[in-house]
UniProtKB/TrEMBL annotation:
Pfam families reported in the protein's UniProt record: Flavodoxin_2 (PF02525)
GO MF assignments: NAD(P)H dehydrogenase (quinone) activity
Family: Belongs to the NAD(P)H dehydrogenase (quinone) family.
Keyword Oxidoreductase listed: yes
SUPFAM superfamilies per the UniProt record, alphabetical: Flavoproteins
Domain Flavodoxin-like fold span(s) in chain numbering: 10-174
Keyword Coiled coil among UniProt keywords: no
InterPro entries, per the entry: Flavodoxin_fold, Flavoprotein-like_sf, NAD(P)H_dehydrogenase_qn
Residue stretches in coiled coil: none
Protein's name in the database: Putative NADPH-quinone reductase
Species the sequence originates in: Actinomadura namibiensis
NCBIfam families given in the database record: PRK09739.1 (NF007280)
Length: 184
């Protein structure tokens, strides 16, 4: 039997260059919801913190060495992931996927020997909140909603041992921003 975490912590990852963006507002409201649920929120604003998404040899996975020592920046981010029991990612959909800075964060931080391989992130929960400019109809008719959900839920969360994963697309974020915020 597992003991409930007396200090539940959510790592709230935000990937948008403008602090006044709709994505940032959704993240603020998400943080309020998490705090209302009794969680401590660790806000990781990738742009504000100056995260470098470029892969370097120091952070490239070494399949033969699951105990590889990664760069200091990556280790600090790994510590933040480790400290959280829930990970919430809020991002704009660009080219029907993750913004480059967020993709780079997963590439560098969710690394072999930490997030997958002999050790993984089992026991955590995760929530993906994507803001898309198109309507729900545009996504469902093309099947892009299912493609994104599979890529993120299965290709990242489940691959890293996280079974409790939610996925939500907030559609029409360009023309319907006010209505979208009412949904939160």
């Amino acid at each position: 039997m597992t003991t409930p975490n007396p200090n539940p912590t959510a790592l709230l990852v935000v990937a948008h260059p403008r602090p006044d963006s709709l994505t940032a507002e959704v993240a603020r409201r998400t943080a309020e919801r998490l705090r209302a649920d009794g969680r401590t929120v660790d806000l990781l604003d990738l742009h504000a913190e100056g995260f470098d998404p470029r892969m370097t040899p120091a952070d490239e996975p070494d399949w033969a060495d699951p105990d590889k020592r990664y760069s200091a920046e990556t280790l600090r981010h790994m510590d933040r992931v480790t400290a959280a029991d829930r990970i919430v990612v809020v991002f704009p959909v660009w080219w029907f996927g993750l913004p480059a800075i967020l993709k780079g964060w997963f590439d560098r931080v969710w690394n072999h020997g930490f997030a997958y391989g002999p050790r993984d992130l089992s026991g955590k929960s995760m929530e993906w909140i994507a803001l898309a400019g198109q309507t729900a109809r545009g996504y469902t008719e093309s099947g892009l909603d299912k493609v994104m959900e599979t890529q993120l839920r299965v290709g990242i969360s489940e691959y890293c041992g996280i079974k409790d994963t939610g996925f939500r697309i907030l559609y029409d974020s360009v023309d319907g921003a006010a209505a979208l915020l009412d949904e939160l």
